[in-house]
Amino acid sequence: MLIVRVANFVHATSGGLRTALRELGRGYQAAGHEAVLILPGAEAGEEQTPQGRVITVPGPAVPGLGGYRVLLNRGAVKTVLRRLGPDRIEVHDRSTLRWLGSWARESGVPSMMVSHESLDGLLRLFGPGGPVAPWAADRLNARTAAAFGTVVCTTEWAQREFLRVGAAPVRVPLGVDLGRFSPAGRDAGLRTGLAGTASVMLLHCGRLSAEKEPGVSLETLAALRADGLDAVLVVAGDGPLRAELSAEAERRRLPVRFLGHVSDPRGLLATADVVLAPGPIETFGLSALEALASGTPAVVRAGSALPEVVGPAGVAATPDGFAAAVRDLLARPAAQRRAAARTQAECFPWSNAVNGFLAVHAGVAALPGGSAAR
């Protein structure tokens, strides 16, 4: 089976989506299928990789998003698709690539859209807000559900906005590389270099952009230190808010270490005492799951999908409650909280995700009209 995946907003330093695409592609290839990924790039290109062929189609960079590009030339994308002749289309962008659902239907190709973001949340943060936001989200989600053979959501939380409009999305959780991310990566030397003699090392790992609300992590550090806890915060990630956050930390004399993009975060994730994940509209949270696999518990945003993922290995809190949640985790014996984190992560191997996605692809083909078995 030739599975062609198409995605926007992916580049060399992007996080969860890039990881998911890579692991799913590898899994498809290992299962005996052919995986092809179409992405926007600065210029046209094609290369063979462990996740299958990766084809880049020229697409413009979006201003203010740190180098992310989008596929705007529909004709060029259609030309590539006609040349490939896919058996399945898997789309990883619910907005700018919605048109691919119609193309797939007209071409007789079963289609799947994977929802990686909350439209409700995005409209609440960057759109009209108020009662208009859910109304607008419902209209757009109904169009998306109608455009594709099936919609895949990675958590029950992410499913809700589609269920609200009468759609029947399939839930398939993503995964974590349990061999790559391990408690064995804990590094005393790394900790000393980053945190010195501080008793607690907090870690914020993710893009520094408005929808992730990284300022909550700075406020958490400030509250803990005001309460007498000798804590430092390490920030792994880059984005448009980095300069503002760095200036704020300096002004408030908070011990924050900004590392920028970290290509291999395994040591950091295993060495931190607690990972902070304050993003309010996360639909899964791969970074938090990688922390759990590394033996580090997480404080996550209540109202996002992350409480569903971290389970008893973490604590969910509102922004004002993050400091208390950190205290809660630290009050648990270190060996106990680290073992619980790893045990929770072991519920999410990538093999389960790959098998789930392939089962949906099989279901898409099994029913008339491209509707997936549910």
From TrEMBL:
The keyword Coiled coil does not apply. It holds the Pfam family Glyco_trans_4_4. The keyword Glycosyltransferase applies. It comes from Actinoplanes subglobosus. It comes from the Bacteria. PANTHER family: SULFOQUINOVOSYL TRANSFERASE SQD2 (PTHR45947). Keywords: Glycosyltransferase, Transferase. InterPro entries: Glyco_trans_4-like_N (IPR028098), Glycosyltransferase_grp1 (IPR050194). This is Glycosyltransferase. Residues 15-172 form the Glycosyltransferase subfamily 4-like N-terminal domain.
